[in-house]
Amino acid sequence: MRDSPAVRAALLRGLSGLLAVASAVGCYDSTAGDLEEGVAAVVARPELPPSLSTAAFALDVDRVRLLLVRQPSELMLDTTVFFPADSTQLTVRLKVLLAQPRDQLTLAMELRSGKQLLFSGSSGFEAIEGSNVAPVVPLQYVGPGNELTTLVIEPRDSVLKPGDIFTFSVRAFQGRIPVDLFYAGWASSDPRVSPVNAKGTLKAPAERGSAFLRVVSPTGVKDSTRVWFSPPPSAIERLSGDGQQGRVGDPLPQPLAVRVTAADGLGVPGARVRFLAPFGSRVQDTLVITDSEGVGRTIATLGPVPTLYTFEAQIPFQPAVTFQAIGLPGPPVAIAKQAGDGQTAPAGQLLQPFTVRVQDRFGNGVGDAEVTWEVVAGGGAVSASVSTTDPTGRTSVTYRLGPLPGSNAVRARLSNGESVVFASTGTP
User: Fold this and answer.
1) For residue range 57-67, what is the model confidence (pLDDT) as tens digits?
2) Which of 75, 132, 296, 349 sits 20 to 30 Å CA-CA off 37?
């Protein structure tokens, strides 16, 4: 629950008192002797939600309300029993005057913290003259936050040094709407080694290891996160991913990997590693939590420019490690005329070269790309039917005009179908 003045005091007491009190509510005093004629004894047996037995809650129950109804609607008893919140036992004797030897009754029970209703439930039963009856009353949580749908522990995937004491927090939501008032109980997957109290305070053991920290609402909504116990990080080293090359705009073939170690040389699990990418490029995760071996990985994606890229990985108070990667142009997707279009010369004459530039999707020149050349009008001939681009993405051919005056056309085409047409005119 958020630490507001209205509920702060309620958070200071645990659930152990509630369980003991609730289990004894309505217990019949066997020393009272035999029951009078026409009377039965009722011993309430509350049944709390199963989620309450899995964690340490801070529920402050200080009163029990009992309602006894003769079916269908005759109210026989409505009483509230007060007791100190730290009580461990409570005895309530209920003697019921029956209207007939066998009477159909309903017992309702409410557990409250001051005026705040926390649990309620009811149970129908048959009371027999001169006998004891102990109906089970299943209780449901109806207090603050009973409609919440999500709990979130913070921080997540954390690491504590041996002997550290840390108090975790929890947030609640109903759908996407934050819930301010709610109860939540805490539990540890290994309570003997790393116990947690009802406030979410956990003490790290002296040995390395890990535990799952869990939180649950009285209605059974849950969340968990892993807590690592390790000495603090003292070094970060590059494991793999350096010296790669890849096409611009694409992820590198291998992830960037580092290992974080402590002073004892062993890996630090749960350490936070921040990866940084140069301008135009990116990493899949800028903040990575190391695994059980102290290793953190992320995928790097190159920017749009063919150049040398330098990525970094860092932890607080230690020098960063770097990864270098070469960006290569992407596959050819476009072709553009560079020179030679629109010439005019006497028919049959050799023209100035036709030059094209092949580009990737970012406009970078693509080397070693094949361009197919063909005459599509006017006749004549090109110097090569296929040419290959240089490192800047350019390639050229020469063209001799057809033998007759008129329009001439030559097409340059990529394998994906993209093409350009050079037009020229032959004069008499």
Assistant:
1) 877 788 899 99
2) 75
